[in-house]
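pinned: reference chain
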Amino acid sequence: MNKIPFPKVPQTLKIYKPIRPRTRFLFTGRCETQNFSIALISSQEIAMFIEFNLENTKLVSAKSFSSKTWSREVLAKNPIQQNDTFFIQIITTNDHFEVFSGGTFIFSLKYTVPLEKITGIRLMESMEMYEFEMEMTIE
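pinned: its structure tokens
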């Protein structure tokens, strides 16, 4: 999967290659006045669920779902404003995800689902996607 221009929201994009450390997921789009979410998923688990809250708390929250249990939630200040464009990067490392907005680090989240089990990316709620790109490092 390389670049997908204007992916429809909501939608689940399939991943056909195994995810490895140093894989980058790049999301460019425009949000509205409501919350929006991105999730990296496997067939039965959620490797990472990120919600960008624009309505109330103005926070970014992230958590994962594995073995029928939600992980502890990570919270950070939401750098994305209502009715604004965004550039979000999710980078995989050896043991956690790193999340950036516009090149600025927001937070990290430890893996509870192995990277190789990730099979899709779910785009949800009130946003317009201009482009999605997945970059995989060749070793």
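why pinned: The chain has a mean pLDDT of 94. The longest strand covers residues 24-41.
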